[in-house]
Each structure stands twice: as structure tokens, then as C-alpha cells.
Amino acid sequence: MVHVLLYYANIIDYGRILFLLWAMAVYQSNPLAFIFFYVVSAALDAVDGMAARHFHQTSNVGMVLDMSIDRMAYLVIQAINFILFPQYANVYLTLIILDGVSHIAMVSSSLISGKTTHKLKDEDTHWLLRLYYGTHLLFTLCLCSEGFAVISYITYYYQFEGILGVLHKALFVFFAAGTFVKQVINVFQIQHAAKQYQLFLDSPKKKA
Description:
The chain is mostly helical. Helices cover 80% and strands 0% of the residues. InterPro entries: CDP-OH_P_trans, CDP-OH_PTrfase_TM_dom, CDP_ALCOHOL_P_TRANSF_CS, CDP_diag_ino_3_P_euk.
């Protein structure tokens, strides 16, 4: 029997960490290399989930590992933007805090509830969270969140003119709008997690 740490999906996640470390090493000296390594690491996030489902290797370890790497990656690029754009430091700091707190709260509340995923579709879940996790809205807003982080980084190192300039501004506005909506979702995630904690604390099993 294969050890959970050697599940294919988890091995992919180890690769994500390596790409992220390479990105961190070159973010000042080689912006293009940083973007490449970061995007590859982010893209593998979709692959690990498919691998886990295909090989029937879903686990709590994999859920926590996947979420931890996601948060670590987002923290890295937004921390870099925090450094590059001190005038917008509060914006990037807020994004880091909301992203980290909401996902850690969701995953931990899922674990105490005995679930193997924090992606909620239950009837007792707020309709906005059901919409988020039950449709392509999840992928769209995650793409916007990552896109906003990457395009912020790109803006510091590169200037675009003409058609590329217009496209750059359009993408920036689109990703920024999607990122704002995702922060609203994050607030609801924190609220839902708090309710799950309260249910756990009030449960007869816990009291016993």
C-alpha cells in the first residue's frame, strides 16, 4: 500500500514547492523567469486535484498540503508586491490576511467536521458559497486573484504601449474586480467556518 505522502497528487505538490522556490530566487534578477516558475507552480494546482481523483488518492493530508502550498504561493507573490509597491502596502497586506485566514479557517473547520474537502456544496451552506464552489465561479475568481497578483508584479517591471497597453489595463481592471469579489467570498468563508466551529463545540460528542 502506497504511503499517503507518496500519493501522486502529493508528489506533484512537492514539485509545486520547488517551482515556487525557484521563482523566489529570481524575482529581482529575472522577472520573466519568476513569472514562468510561478505560473507553472500555479498551473500544477489543477493537475494535483485531477491526479488525486483519478487514482482515488484523496486524503486529509493532501487537502491540507494543497491548501498550504496555495496559501504559501499567494503569500509569496503578494509579499513581493507589498515590497515593490509600498504606496499600496495596505492593499496587498489585506489580501494576504483575508486569503490566509479564510482558507485556514475553512480547511480546519472541514477537518473537525470529518470532511475531506473544504469545497462546500451542502444545503445548509450560504447560497453564495454554494454558487462559488458549485460552478465555474471558483475557477474564475481564483484566476482573477492570481492574475491580479501576477499583473501587479508585471506592471512594476514592464511598461506597455498601444494595443498591448490597452490590453494590460483591461486585464488589470478585470482581475482587480474579480479579486474584490473573491474577498467578499473570503469573508463569507470565515463566517461559515465560525459557525462550523460553534456547531462542533455545541455537539453532544464534544461535550461528552
